[in-house]
Specification:
Blueprint (H helix, E strand, L loop, with lengths): L9 H4 L26 H4 L12 H62 L5 H21 L4 E2 L11 E7 L9 E6 L1 E2 L9 E6 L3
Parallel strand pairs: 2-5
Antiparallel strand pairs: 1-4, 3-5
Amino acid sequence: MHSHPQEPDRAASDPVEPVPEGAARPPRGDLPQPGPPPRPEAANDEPGPDAAGPAPDEDEYTTAIQELEDRWRRALADLDNLRKRHARELERERTVERSRTAAAFLPVLDNLELALTHAGADPGAIVEGIRAVRDQAVNVLELLGYPRHAETGVVFDPARHEVVGVVQDPDAPPGTVVEVLRPGYGDGERQLRPAAVTVAKRE
């Protein structure tokens, strides 16, 4: 049996050229040649956490907050202007109402002046003139919303009457108004003052 001669090992048979000390050894043909390491940006196109500039959400929140602050400041300015305008209108209405009330009483003053000029005339005529002026003033107050209350014989009402005395009167039912010492004007929330009265005593 003949034995075939073994093929010599190529790795062992290839002559190895000596490499000077400090020089880079040339790569072998059967090994992959290493390349430069990939950059982190090449693997992912999205900017990293250290990218410059704020996040889009933060910009939206900042813009929304600024808009809300602007609206709030405009609302405060509008409210202040409304308050000032209301104060001016209220003062103007008060001035107009005072003028209207004073003008309504001017005829009353004119008639009083006329009565004083006839003070030396007949006393009866003067009394009648004063009574007419009084009725005119009562009518002015009623037109302004303050009717006169000077009724007797009505049941005592604490909302309209102020008791200044209690009398024994057999002809008057107990708890009724016997005499009005000072008339009242107005009703409810528009009451200028209650009538001062004396009331029949209860048994």
